[in-house]
Batch of 2 targets.
Target 1
Amino acid sequence: MKRLVAALAAVMCLGAAPTPAPVALDALLAEAPAPKLSDYRLFRDAGGRAPNGLTPYGLNTPLFTDYAEKHRFLYLPPGAKAAYRADGVLDFPVGATLVKTFAYPADLRRPDQKVRYLETRLLIHKREGWAALTYVWNEDQTEAVLKRAGARIDVSFVDAHGQARRIDYAVPNQNQCKECHQLDKTLSPIGPKARNLNGTYAYAGGAENQLAHWSRLGLLAGAPKPDKALRTARWDDPAEPLEARARAYLDVNCAHCHNPRGVASNSGLFLNLEETRAAALGVGKGPVAAGRGSGGLKVGIEPGHPEQSILAYRMASDEPGVMMPELGRTITHEEGLALVRAYIAGMKPQ
Amino acid sequence: MMRLTTALLAATMLGGAAQAKTIAVAPGPDAQERIQTALLDAKPGDTVQLAAGRYELSDGLSLDVDDVTVKGAGPDATVLSFKGQKGAGEGLLVTSDRVTVRDLGVEDTRGDGVKSKASDQISFINLRVEWTGGPNEKNGAYGVYPVSSTNVLIDKVVVKGASDAGIYVGQSKNIVVKNSRAEFNVAGIEIENSMNADVFDNVATHNAGGILVFDLPNLPQMGGHSTRLFRNKVVQNDTANFAPKGNIVAQVPTGTGVMIMANRNVHVFENEIAENQTAAVMLVSYVQKFDDKTYNPLPRDIVVRDNKLGRNGWDPKFDGGAVLAKMMGGTLPPVMWDGVTSFPGTSDPVRVVISNGPILNLNLPAPGALLAAKPKVEPTLGDAKIAEPSPVVLPKRQADLGA
């Protein structure tokens, strides 16, 4: 009943104001975060289903978050463009906002039905730098409010194999957002690197390469033709080389901390795509501060032997203090783990 | 005009400091969210005051604001229990500068206890970090854990049960660890890949190893040097090593007093070292394979002098130790050195000066080459003049905290 009323109200509003007000750039740029997601007018509806002129995007290889579906959007202030960068994330102008909603369909095999929104995270490029915020949706799915200190949400869904799953989903606190989203202590986006955007997206008007699409719409300046730009492999495309898929997976799921400028720099384990030194990638490398996270194993990667590799051991765990990544998941990503195991198994034993 | 602006700015900042406030948190439901919110709301100069009582936490806590003090009502009065922790790699993570954490207890974190990463002027004072079930390889690795930090003060801290090191300082610079107590950990106190550390007036007892000074390869900060260990009581380290395999401390033989692995310019003096069944002091090379041309695996410029050595070395717990002890008449000399004096690709001279013998010099030709040992017992060793590192000086405001 409540929902019906909300829907009716929404329809009446739409009827009254056929042209929605634009995104509230002043709210995005304000020093203090808005208390409610709707204050930014990023969506035309109260439920955050209808983006207000935002550009949807996807990543060739995304971060795993407990099998949550993610809806990503880019907002740019009128007339502003992002500038292409071959390395790292694109150079976004002030006001640029990355919007990511985490959602669970009741059954992952039917992703469009009975979808529950949990949180919508914003990365806002303010004048003084990037800010990370998250807004948690109410049970009625009519409002999302700012949550700074983190939360746990009881979530049930049926997974891709038809198994019922129940998880204690973790909404990160504001500092935890920063733990992953930082380079040299400065907050930064992770996903929208040119190379990870360099793939096809199924837009309402038809499929198109995202770099080409953004360039055509005037959202992106300076990008080369997609086939001349670097491209991160799709982790789940069996047609791509195994190593490229595994390195892409490790880059996206681990390297936001495990890079020389990240939170895990002290480990000396660097899993970013640019890393080429075998020891830095974990091959034959002993643990440093892993504690029981080592699982009694001696090296990060023992070529040919995933069962002797700490990397796979920690990916397989769902126990705090053992599991990696430390944040962002509460359950094991079986498919990602299988990929990394296959990658290690395929390395020539030493 | 510029000056006026500066003056105004200064006034504003002073005003800000004058308004430093205390954010009070009490135990009770939603402790997780209330403490974390306080840690997010704190402004530079503020104190987050945790009232006496027990706080049941479900996730890690973190602080990323400079100039904040997190203060409890005492290490046994304010207790942060992480028994029900579901996420994060540590209990409390500090990533900002000029932070003091003091007067509270942290129990049963799933990973590390209290950690700082890349902090300047980080102080841990009068803390208790404990795994209440006693030594267990499922306990978290480190109790108090500053890493990649500068100006580190650890004072009056007690750590029990860490499955790696109770007090662990890694890849840091300018460090003071004093008046603290580490017991029932694998390693009591460990200084690793760090420069300029003073470790004094501590007690390390009932660990597998008392105090360790290590340097490891393949890390952003290597070449650890200039550590002074003095006036510590390193006695009865007798807990069987319970570290998970693979970790470097799993190689520390049960009953080791002080162990120096790789590292340079380490001075061990005026300590009381007794009742450690393997050895009072061991100087060893890093023996594992490594691929890092910038790393020197040998201990060098080591001074051991004027320690009070009691009974040690009667039942050494390293491979071949029992046989070796038998050869020596039942008990090993208290100080042991692997005797490696050169390593391909390194040029530092290896100087070891031990006036506090007798010393068992294994005279190994290379790290870990035990089968080629030519053990020799000597009353003293070396006569090089190795200058002692100057005392570590912390910024005054920080040093005063520990006064």
Target 2
Amino acid sequence: MIEFSRVSKVFDGRKAVDELDLVIPQGELAVLIGTSGSGKSTTLKMINRLVEYDAGTLRFAGEDVRHFHPETLRRRMGYAIQSIGLFPHWTVEQNIATVPQLLHWPKPRIRDRVTELLELLHLEPGQYRGRFPHQLSGGQQQRVGVARALAADPDVLLMDEPFGALDPVTRAALQEELRRIHALSGKTIVLVTHDIDEALGLGQRIVLMEQGRIVQQGSPLELLTHPASDFVRDFVGRSDIGIKLLALDRVADRTRHDEAVGGEPIASSSTLREALSAFITRKVDRLPVVDEQGRPAGTLHFCDLLEAQA
Amino acid sequence: MKIHHPVQLLLVGLMLASAWGLPFLTHAPNRLLTGTGIELAALLRGERLWLLVPVLPLLMAPFLTPLRKTGLAVAIAASLWLAGLTWLAGDEAARLAGGPDSLVRTSFGGGFWLLFILAGLQANDALRRLNGPGGRQTLAQLAVYGPVLWLLLSGRLEALSVLKEYANHRDSFDLALWRHLQLVGLTLLPACLLGSALGLLTFRQSRARGPVFTVLNIIQTIPSIALFGLLIGPLAALGKLFPASGLAGIGLPPALLALTLYGLLPMARGTLAGLQQMPEGVIEAARGMGLSPRQRLLRVELPIALPVMISGLRVTAVQAVGLAQLAALIGAGGFGAIMFQGLLGSALDLVLLGVIPVVVLAIAVDALFALLVSLLEVTPR
């Protein structure tokens, strides 16, 4: 879907992006991660030509992005940013309808699409469509921001630290929404973050960047189990790599379905990291597991956490 | 007693001082002689003492607990007191006036003016604390002067010398009013267009910001009389080169040019400030979603900047009302013509006839724009 080949960008004589090679296939959720100034945001912005690259080629859907008119290209890509940037003089509905309106969709279709998106992002349409951005909380604003980015059913969703300014609870909720939306729509998503937990939790492919180059790319498991260098090892968290590995798997994967014990249950959709925390705080070695509907689903044994990683 | 409003206390103190210390009216046998002063105390006899009723709340104003009710009461009392003062002056002037051919002149004295201004300030201060929506507050501020306006229009003040001057100069007054409005109106259009264009330019090109505002600041520091004078030469030369253009060194065109130049700074500043207060990320989001530069300007940037831009226009307009007064010096007319006629003839009442309407006009223009801004801000931002 998106192919970088030897793409470079120079700012004031300094290479912000240095001969980057990267392929993001259709339907993948790729996370660009790195420290400040690593070139991750620049890389993202080159995709929708907010930043023009200096050398190499960057293809979108098989065609050089420079062959598109910038506005046409951008209307085919959703764009969500940390500062959200909702238009303060427009209602939630008008904000979400921005791109469909630019594409001259018929009014009833826009209205239906807004309703659909508000429902998707868990904002009651009747209550929220007429509100103005300043009447919303930060989390609600970013929900609208994500809905706006998805409005015209774009081929690609570009997100620049979309959850960076939110409190941890709201951020976790929105990460969960994004995971759900990705699973539901199968859209290609490119997300920039500096939060390694966010990257490990969301990404199918993680691209770790430093000084305009890719240091390592791969699945979360690969990054944790086979870090290519000390830099990667430090970045993913040298001392708690084990904890982070646990965060990649769900309780459901290790549940013994034929056993049952008493006590306060844990949800099968929780991560093993959360399960570990529950074992330690409750000082037990077995936890009852319940499924999404709250029905008993079996037992999780402490020793099963150690089972070899698949 | 606790003092809740120190400002009101100061105003009350000044009110008492000016009621006793300065003549309320001056009276002269004709317009050339200096008048003799008449004290306020000498006028308040018999039934006229009722006029003092609204003074009581005004005297108490500094000590009233800050409530909506008390603020409103003070404003109403001030409004009645303003009307009472004006009526008293008109009534006394009528009593002193001789027959229809009499040359007797009764004018406002220093005491009247101070009492009038202080009561106006008391009302303003009291209403300011009402915390209503901006538009309603502006209307309330104007309503305070309603009774005075009614007295003026009802003809009860005709015996006062300023209104005698008005009767004598009615034609030139109407002409001056029309010309003054023309000067202000014709200044606003180009100042608004050019000023906002400059504001937009400096917003887009931050490198242009320094030079543009330096030039505009320099223009602002040139005394207006000097600028009017400076423009005579070049414009006269242009007029000679192109006789068909109707340009000349004096008259309306150079006055409009000077007023427009003065209007650029507030307008450009207002536009730049309006654009700069754009919430973070709005422009990046607009670009990222594929709005063209034109769509960005018309749909996003200008609507968001509009209230602050109108504030800039408000400054430009009020400034133009004042500066247009001096345009009379280069033959552009307006109320300045009446004022200078009065100054040259040592006719103080004629000077007032040229000045008071400008003050009223400035206040009215200011209120109009305040109203406009508040209307724009009521629609949620």
